[in-house]
Design goal:
With 434 residues, the chain is α+β, with helices and mostly antiparallel strands. The chain has twelve helices and ten strands. Strands 5, 6, 7, 8 and 9 form a five-stranded antiparallel β-sheet that branches. Strands 1-3-2 form a three-stranded antiparallel β-sheet. Strands 4-10 form a two-stranded parallel sheet. A hairpin with a 2-residue loop joins strand 6 and strand 7. It is extended and about 95 Å long. The two termini are 25 Å apart.
């Protein structure tokens, strides 16, 4: 197995020396400029004596000059040594005595030098999945449920019903924040509650009471509750069953499909599911490839790159939640929530860049065109969208980057070892497998 640079090599340092002569020259120049612009009490503008100007502005100007020259000296040295800097240097002053050269120690992180393991050593999983008639019927039934009317029933609850309950949660006999609710609606089978909660509500009718003895999962969002045993005192207020809409043209149209009968509708739905499934499977196979690529190339990555990716992920999450990214708070989006995924993304990016470099890959014009046309096909005027992508340099560069990633994936699929694994449609689309 071949390795990247060690963490110690990623964290580097340089000794920075700023000649006193350069400092004095710049300080003198800036003091003269300050004297010319000075408006000091007791003196006309620009007429204050140099010793007065130097006394008032000299120390601050000297500090600015020293730090500015130190920063420029570092940049020059880094360029001369062809260092790929990925973080702002931390300039640590070691000697700032007036009349002497200023000395600093600059610490920083560099982009890792990569020596890839052979791609033939990579073993990934090629996930396979088919859509059965049962999967198709279940999908259509779920569409019906989304548009169903919930009607109260005087029957015991079953899977697929909605049940309204009051509940009080207790840990070690004590109520906890967020563990109590009144007239709370739960759809049994939706998997929106912790494991065992919905299942425990099956077979109940209005007025029934039941204590659910459960455990919070290890990965529960609130760390103070994770893995802890919990009991919920529940009382059923109402049981509702869905009244499904009929499978007719009106229903078909409400789901975005024009069809004259059930068979035609099923055919259209299956086509859409197969298109979606193809993309999901490609994503799973790609992720398996990337995981395998990381596994055979163990290395440390610069913390600055991880921090940057965490910041990007937080902003994306905030936007998806309809929040202003500027209002992100650490307690709402703690760094550790994103750290592992951010590290993986950075590692994949470094590895893909190295493969692109080693194989001297360039964006393939045909693949770029294919990606753009695929994105444009769902718009009212596809050609207008295609023209937009080709006329906007930034958008075109983004598509070219996607094209390069796909070219790398194609190369990995050709050279790496694969093993096939069949998974169910439900596992595939739920994201719980692979």
């Amino acid at each position: 197995m071949k390795f990247f640079k060690s963490k110690a090599e990623i964290n580097q340092s340089l000794n920075i020396v700023v000649p006193n002569k350069d400092i004095e020259e710049q300080v003198s120049t800036k003091l003269k400029a300050a004297q010319k612009d000075s408006k000091l009490k007791g003196f006309r503008k620009g007429k204050a004596p140099m010793d007065v100007v130097s006394s008032m502005f000299g120390p601050e100007i000297r500090q600015e000059v020293i730090w500015d020259l130190a920063s420029k000296t570092f940049s020059k040295l880094a360029q001369e040594k062809d260092l790929k800097i990925v973080s702002r240097p931390n300039l640590i002053p070691e000697s700032l005595d007036e009349g002497k050269d200023a000395k600093f120690k600059a610490t920083f992180e560099v982009y890792p030098e990569v020596s890839l393991a052979k791609i033939s050593k990579i073993s990934f999983t090629n996930f396979l999945c088919d859509i059965t008639d049962e999967d198709l019927d279940k999908t259509i039934n779920n569409l019906q449920k989304r548009m169903s009317q919930w009607e109260p029933v005087d029957e015991v609850s079953k899977d697929g019903d909605q049940i309204k309950i009051n509940f009080v949660g207790r840990i070690e006999g004590e109520e906890f924040e967020g563990g109590t609710a009144e007239d709370f609606s739960v759809e049994i089978g939706s998997k929106s509650m912790i494991k065992g909660f919905e299942e425990g509500l099956i077979g109940l009718k209005k007025g029934d009471k039941k204590i659910l003895e459960l455990n919070f999962p290890e990965d529960y969002g609130k760390k103070e509750l994770a893995s802890k045993p919990v009991s919920f005192d529940t009382e059923v207020n109402e049981v509702l069953s869905p009244k499904l809409p009929e499978l007719n043209e009106e229903f078909f149209k409400s789901t975005g499909i024009e069809a004259a009968d059930v068979d035609s509708y099923k055919k259209e739905v299956r086509t859409k599911l197969e298109e979606d499934l193809e993309n999901i499977l490609k994503g799973k196979v790609k992720q398996s490839l990337f995981d395998a690529l990381i596994e055979v190339n163990e290395f440390e990555v610069p913390s600055a790159m991880i921090d940057s990716e965490i910041s990007n992920m937080k902003q994306d999450t905030a936007r998806r939640m309809g929040m202003d990214p500027k209002e992100i708070k650490e307690d709402l989006f703690p760094n550790e929530t994103f750290s592992d995924e951010a590290t993986k993304r950075v590692k994949v990016g470094i590895l893909l860049n190295k493969i692109i470099e080693d194989k001297e890959l360039k964006p393939d014009a045909d693949k770029v065109k294919e990606i753009i046309e695929e994105r444009a096909k769902n718009y009212k005027d596809p050609q207008q969208v295609i023209n937009y992508f080709y006329s906007d340099e930034e958008q075109l560069r983004n598509i070219e980057s996607i094209s390069l990633e796909e070219q790398v994936v194609d190369a990995l699929l050709t050279e790496a070892k694969s093993s096939e694994e069949n998974i169910s449609y439900e596992d595939c689309v739920s994201g719980t497998y692979g």
